[in-house]
Amino acid sequence: DHYVVIGKGESILSCVNEIMLAISNGYADNKPVVVLLPSEEEKKRLELSPDVEILIGEPSNKDTLKRANVESAKYVILALEDDSKSVFVTLLVKGMSNAKVFVEALRPESFELLKQAGADRVIVSRELGGRLLASSIFEPEVVDVIEDLTTSTGSYDITVIPGDEVWGLEYKQAFEKLYPKGCFLMGYIAQRVVLMPSLAERIPKGSKLVVLKRAGK
Amino acid sequence: DHYVVIGKGESILSCVNEIMLAISNGYADNKPVVVLLPSEEEKKRLELSPDVEILIGEPSNKDTLKRANVESAKYVILALEDDSKSVFVTLLVKGMSNAKVFVEALRPESFELLKQAGADRVIVSRELGGRLLASSIFEPEVVDVIEDLTTSTGSYDITVIPGDEVWGLEYKQAFEKLYPKGCFLMGYIAQRVVLMPSLAERIPKGSKLVVLKRAGK
Ligand SMILES: [Ca+2]
Ligand SMILES: [Ca+2]
To answer: Which of B28, B138, B140 is the closest to A137 by Cβ?
Structure first.
């Protein structure tokens, strides 16, 4: 019932920092974070938070995964800088654990293979980076907004909140009820994410809300 | 007055594809796109659009940059997979051209140095990827929304539109005027980006608008 982060490089650092921040903000459950790195050098270089348990070992080795208690982990994150190894480790983890597995891929071509191996989410970081570089040309302000929205720092965050206080209200009424509280209602999540419903559409009972908020509120 | 994209790897592919898409949608000016790659192998591997001019050469060589007409370029994008080389090439480009320079950095530590070298924007892709992996744990729907918002595909886009039809209106009035047209008014850009203004705040004359739209509208 803990978090396991496996890999190397800058993705690991920002991922672990974001998890620690979410735990300290109360957004994520306060469970142990175990980080598996390939070497002592990488451990020195990354300077991870002292609240994290760090193991050194080769993740494609099942015994190493057992040392990290992958069997009982709730979430396993892989950022291995090697997509074939990521496929292999995803299969190993899925074979020994019920954990959700989130994987950073280097190449878009690896997306499907990682999904087939059982990955619950695949992020192709550099593809995202390339798109933002392109958008910097034709819509720089949008890139500013997106850079802010993708981190828990900055001025604004997108977040999900319980919706019970506006269930059954029309979207327009719900918007006006939440706005003075600093929540900008973008849409709701019932079976799927629905942004920008029509003004008269009623917020479904049981749904959660997607809102934009000022950071720190 | 053209676009120059320099580097290698997946960032280049997604960056060029996004520029071509923006040109075909009319979001970006229809100017030539010149891509400078390090080798013929990289050219074969990436399979870039045939509408792109591809040069092969070493970007830290000033003559290579001249071949790409960097002197008269409007935008130069660097994704070199080597942050020290990126600093060097940023200095070269800024010394010979008035182009805006947007750089992909591998390490967060390089951010400040690239800014000092004159980079107009620095994107640390893998840092962004790491944050999204972490957010997948505690707010997976937000990651879905952000993945959609960061590409011109998917269901929704954040975009900037001219604001003249709502200048002087209160934010609430402007919101209600634009909503039926499929534009969800998030805020405005005057000197800086202001999201979620108060309901009675007037949209400043001369400002542009930040809106969420359904894709393809
Ligand atoms: Ca933020
Ligand atoms: Ca989109």
So the answer is: B28
* CA B216–ligand 2 middle distance (angstroms): 9
Alpha carbon separation from B150 to A20, B21, B49 (Å, rounded): 25, 14, 21
Is the CB of residue B79 less than 8 Å from the CB of residue A129? yes
Total-model pTM:
0.84
Strand B193-195 relative to strand B183-189, pairing:
antiparallel
A47: left (phi over 0), alpha (psi -120 to 50) or beta: left
**Which tens digit of pLDDT belongs to each residue from A42-93?**
999 999 999 999 999 999 999 999 999 999 999 999 999 999 999 999 999 9
**B58 within 8 A of B64, measured Cβ to Cβ:** yes
DSSP A124: E
Three-class secondary structure of residue B157 per DSSP: strand
Distance CA B169, CA B155 (A): 29
ipTM for the predicted complex comes to: 0.88
* Residue B149 zone, left/alpha/beta (φ > 0; ψ -120 to 50; rest): alpha
Task: Tell me how far apart the alpha carbons of residues A185 and A183 are, in angstroms, rounded to a whole number.
Answer: 6
Cα separations in angstroms, B12 against A83, A211, B150: 18, 33, 16
Smallest CA–CA distance, residue B41 to chain A, in Å, is: 16
Interface list for A 5-24 with B (CB within 8 A): 9-19, 22
